[in-house]
Amino acid sequence: MTSPYxxxxxxxxxxxxxxxxxxxxxxxKEPKQSDASIGGISQEGATIKGVVKFKGKxxxxxxxxxxxxxxxxxxHPNAAxxxxxxxxxxxxxxxxxxxxxxxxLEGKKYSVPKKKAVLxxxxxxxxxxxxxxxxxxxxxxxxxDATLHNVNLTSKYNLAFNDAMPVKGxxxxxxxxxxxxxxxxxxxxxxxxxxxxxxxxxxxxxxTQKQGTFEFRGLPPGKYTISVWHEFRRxxxxxxxxxxxxxxxxxxxxxxxxxxxxxxxx
Amino acid sequence: MHGHSSxxxxxxxxxAPAAALSLMTVLILTISACTSTTTVDxxxxxxxxxxxxxxxxxxxxxxxxxxHCAACHxxxxxxxxxxSQTFSIRPRAFRFESxxxxxxxxxxxxxxxxxxxxxxxxxxxxxxxxxxxxTDSELNSLATYIREIRRIxxxxxxxxxxxxxxSDDDYGDEDYGSDSTxxxxxxxxxIANGKLKPGPTTVxxxxxxxxxxxxxxxxxxxxxxxxxCHGQKGRGxxxxxxxxxxxxxxxxxxxxxxRYSGGDADTDLYWRIRLGIPGTPMPGFSHLSDSDVWQLIxxxxxxxxxxx
Lengths: 266, 308
What we know:
The complex is a heterodimer.
Chain A: H1 4-28, E1 38-40, E2 46-54, H2 70-74, E3 88-89, E4 93-94, E5 98-103, E6 117-122, E7 125-127, E8 130-134, E9 139-143, E10 149-154, E11 161-165, E12 171-174, E13 180-186, E14 194-200, E15 205-207, E16 213-219, E17 222-229, E18 235-237, E19 241-246, E20 251-260
Parallel strand pairs in A: 1-16, 2-20, 6-9, 8-14
Antiparallel strand pairs in A: 2-16, 3-4, 5-15, 5-17, 6-7, 9-12, 10-11, 10-13, 13-14, 17-19, 18-20
Chain B: H1 2-15, H2 20-33, E1 37-38, E2 44-45, H3 56-68, H4 70-73, H5 112-121, H6 136-159, H7 185-196, H8 215-225, H9 227-230, H10 266-275, H11 290-304
Antiparallel strand pairs in B: 1-2
Helix pairs in contact in B: 1-2, 2-3, 3-6, 5-6, 6-7, 8-11
C-alpha cells in the first residue's frame, strides 16, 4: 500500500514533468530565425508577408552533367544534381527569388549582424544558391568537397575576387562595401557552378524557399517599395515592384507573379 | 554644338593658369579628344577619349601613349589599334579589361610599379615589346595615363544599365532584362576609384632557410592545385572550357614552354600563384605556405626544362 505522502510526491512529480514538457514545446514553437524567407528584426512593428507565384509552363529542371570532374560525379552516386536556374515551389510558386525593400528605409540605420553568413560548396553545387548578406557582414565561403574549386566573383560596385579553394574543409572570409544586387559567384573549373549574392544595408530581405513565401518583420510605419530579382531573365515579373503603406502593427499581404517571357526570334 | 564649345571653354578656363607648354599639349589633346573615329565596320562615332587633363604629367602621358601604345592598344584603349590586326594575341583593351599582372592584393588593381614593370619588360609570348628605352619618369606618366583610361572604362561599366555582360549565361535563347539602377557620375567615379586603388604590395619572402627542393612534394602540390587546368604535364591541355572576363575562350598557360606573360622571375611567379590573374580563371592561392609556393615554382622550372 502507498502512503498519502508517497501519493502526493507522485502527483507533484507528474505535474512538474507535464510543465516541463509544455514549456519545451512552447520554445519549439518559436519562429526559426535561420529561415532565409524571413527578413527583418525582432522588434515590434508592421509585417509584410507575400508569395511569389509562377504562371505558365513549368519546365522540369535539367540534370547537371558533371563529367568534367570525376570527383564531382562521385559525390552524386545515385542521381545527378539538378540545375538551379529555375526551381519551382509548392502551389505554383517560384523559389530562389530575392525579395527586398528597395525604398522607404532611407536614412534608417541598422546594425550589421555579428553572425556570419555561410556559403558552402557541397557536391560541386553552391549551398545556398542565393544568399543575402549585410554590407560589412562576414561572408564565410566553405569548401566541403575534396576537389579544387575557385570562387570567382564578378561585381559591378564591389571589389571582385578569385580565390582557389583546393582543400576540403577550407574556409575564406569576405565582406562587401556597397549594396549590390545579383553578384555572380562562379567556379571556372566547374562551369555549372553559379550562385548569387546580394548585399544590403538593412535586414528587410528574403529568399523564397519551398513555399515560395517571404516575410518582413518589425517594420516601422511607412511607405515601402518591394522589389524582386530572379536570375533566369526569361522569367519576368508582372510587377517588378509593389508599393505598400503600413501603419504600426499592420499586417499586409502582397503577391508577385512571374511568367516566362515569349522567346525572341532572331 | 553648343554643349561642345562650352566644354571647350571650360577646359580653357581650368587650364588658364597652367604653364604655356602644358597648355599647348593639352590643347592638342582637347582637339584630338573631339575628333571622330571610324570603326572597322565604317560607322562613324564620337568617343570621349579622356576627361579634363589634371596635371602636366597627365598630358605628358597622353602624348607618350599616342607615340608608343596607341598603334596597338588603340587611341581610346579599346585594344583595337590598326597595327594589331595581324597579331596572334589581341592587345589588352585597358578600357574594358582588368589589368592582369599584379603584386598587390588578390583580385585588386595593380600598383604603378606593376604597370611600369610590364611596359619596361614587354610580354615575350605576345607581340608586346619592352620599352626599356623610356625613362622612369616617362613610364610613370604612361602608367598614370593608362590607369585613367581604365578609370573611364570602369565608370562606364558601373553606370551602364542593362544586363551585365559578365553575368550572362550560355543560354542561347535567353533575353536579358535590364538592371534599372541609375547611378550618378560622381557616385560611379567613387566606385571606380575604389576599384582602381591598389592594395599594399605583397612582399615576396625569401626561400625558407630550411627549404629543400623536393620534386615529389612539388609534383603532389602541382597535381592538387594546378593540374586540373594546366594539365598533368603542364601543357595547358585541360578538358575544362575556360573563359576570360569578356566571355572569350581562354587557354591556361602551357607551362612547359617556360615563358610566362607576367614575367619569368621567381618574384613574378610567386605573385601569379599567390594573387592570381584578374580577369582570367586563374585564382589566387592564398592558403599555400610560402615553402609550398617555392616548391611549386621549382616544379614549374622543371616542367619548363622538359625534364618531367
